[in-house]
Every structure is written in C-alpha cells, then in structure tokens.
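#structure-requests
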Amino acid sequence: MTTTRRNFIKSMAATTAGVAVGGVAKGMSPKSYKKVIGANDKMQLAIAGLGRRYGAFIDPIKRKESNVELRYLCDVMDSSLEKAGERCKKSLGYKSKLEKDVRKVLEDKDVDAIFIATPDHWHAPGTVMACQAGKHVYVEKPCSHNMFENEILVAAQQKYNKVIQMGNQQRSSAQSQDIIKQIRNGVIGDAYKGLAFYSNSRPVCPNPKKAAVPTGLDWDLFQGPSPRKEYMHDTWNYNWHWYGWDFGTAELGNNATHELDVARWALGLTYPSKVYVEAAKRNFKEDGWEMYDTMEATFEFDNGKAIVWDGKSRNAFKTYGAGRGTIIFGTEGTVWMDRGRYELYDRTGKKIKDSKSASQEAGTALGGGGDLTTRHAQNFFNAVRGKEELTSPISEGTISQSMVHYGNIAYRIGKGFEVDSKTGRIFDREAMELWGRTYEPGWEPKI
C-alpha cells in the first residue's frame, strides 16, 4: 500500500512531537549534535555504493587534516567491491573491509559515519537505518525518492540527533557563497527569477528484457526497499535511472537537484505555490528510456518570484553557454553561475565582474567529483566533530528536493497543481497519491 502523508503523520505523531512536516526544521548548531568522536580522534568511515560517484570521496578521505579512516567499502556487486577495494588501497595505502550488506556495516559500533552513494531508492531508507545505528550520514543527491521520505529524513535527524549532510556540493563553493551573498544584499536589485539548466548527450538506452541476474550481484539487496521483481537486462549499471520509478527519480532527481537548489538558495525561497511542467520523451523514441528526457518545469512562489528548469538529457546544445548552471535575474542586473565561476552583468547586459574561479568540479561527466566535493565532505567531517556548521543540512536539502518531486509528480499525472507554500502539502488529491511509494514488506523506513 502506498504511504500517504496522512498515514505518515498518524504513525509518527507519538514519537516525533514537534517535528515540522514537509521538510521544514530549524538548523542545529554544531554544539547541539550528539558527537561520537572527539576532535582529535580518527573518524571511522564507510562508503555504501561503489558506482561512478565513490571515487570523488577518496581525496577528502586521504587528506591528513580530515583524520579519517575508510573502514568499510560496501556494494551489492562483487566486481564493484573488488575494483573499489584495489583502487582505495592504492590511493589510501591500506586495505578497507569489503562487505555486500550495508546492514552488517551498520552493526559495527566502531563505524562513526557513512557515505551513501547507492541508487536513489536506497538514499533515505539507508540514511534512516544509519541514524538508528548511531551513525552520521553524508547522503548523495537526491536525498529522497519521494515526499514521504523527505519528512522521515527530517524526523530521523531530529530524533537521533545525527549530522546528515546532503551531497549538493555547490553549497560548499566559495564563489557561489560569495555571489549569493551579493545577490541577497541587492547587487542585481530585486532578484525575481531563477533559471536552472542542464544539457547532455545521453545515448540510446537499451530496451530492458528479462535476463539472468549478473554474476556477483545480490539482486535482492539491490532492490532493498523497492518491491521485488524479476531482473531486467542492464538495470543495475546506471540504467536503473531511466527504467521506470522503482529505483530512480529521472533527470530532475539525477541532476536538477543541484541547480534547483542553487536557484532556491539565491532567491531565499522555500516551497512554491504552483507547479506545472511541459515534458516528454523526444529522443530515440523506441529505446528503453521510460520517462521524459526533455522538460521545462515552472515553480511559482507567493511573492511573485519563480524558478524555471530547462532540462535536455539527450540534446547537448548549450542554450545558455554551458552544459549546466543557474541564471538569476534581478531588476538591476543578472548573474550567470555554475560550479566553477560566476559572471555578473548590469541591467544593460554589460559584464561587470567575472570570478574566474579555479574550481575543478565536474559538470556533466558521469560521476563528477572535484574540489567542491572535497570541501563538502570536509565540512561534513568538521560538523560531526562540532567544529563547523553544515553547509547543506538535511532540513534544508529536503526543501530543494521537494521541487524535484513536485516536478516528477506533475509529469506523471499530466497536470500542474497548487502547493501550500507554508507546509509543502499538495492540494491535488491525485498528486497526493504519489506523495509516497509502496515498499517491500519489512523494508519500510520507520522512526
């Protein structure tokens, strides 16, 4: 049975009094976190999910100032475990334990924190399990698979008092922090619109067909919280993103998460009041890709401001001069920004400043990684030790994640809808049917 918002609130009321619904929660100061290690103790870390993303964490882990030991590598595929084990041993100079079942990793009381870089459907349930086991969590984007999971993430953070950092690493960009502060201080007048964009040339996606489970893959563990089904060819290795909604969150969850977050951050917004999309599958129409590959989504806010998403997964034309980024329009000027730099223009379109950053963070390349991820991870380590504020606490990350879910819901039901801008609730009953999802019995995330 699909988890609805009403059922969630009823089941949580007895144990999470005072938790704000819809992902709104006050940030916590470093001193308020329940720390498990001292400032000078070596942090024992695990990474769950050894696909294209885990390599970005090696640099922050091996840095002396991080004072971290990678105790576990965890993945449901033998070959991924073995490959990552060799790579990390070569980079770090020691051997980490290899484990297929994340539940066994979480049973180890010596583990202080875990990075979750699994497929999307594991992010929130895995984070909740980790908090219950006393671990701090760095959870990759998207932090949740649906709106129900947004709520339970915030509830878990508050109940178990753990540090949860969302992996939207542009929040740790000094250049982005600088220009957003300037925007908030009026450098472009009244900032009224954000345009978030992404263009890529993703190729033909194989048509899924029934196949034997690949050698070394624990298909049951891969599915985890998702209802069980037969294995389909090429699912486990990245294409789970495009094969329906069991595991992935489409391109909105895969990439729009970043730029929508930056736009909302720059404009100082929370929940929209209206959402509508125009989206379709427009490329390679006979291939295995099951959802939209092209979308324009519009989010209107009560104060007359708006955020627009222009996503083209399989058309790499650089409409706005780059493969991804965010443009903020104001009454007196415009800011163009991406992960590496920003450009400031006056109202006539004259460039008046270019940050010319030396950032090396990847853009549209699979896996990404770079100096922003390193800073973001080190911020997480320092927050666990009580030395810094998180740059992207889960109470903030889930609000941005809501925009992703609203856009996907509007696409799936074929219409826009209104939202309670104070709570994040959707007024449309059909849309609310997709507030949560059906879980495999026994795998439902619970507080």
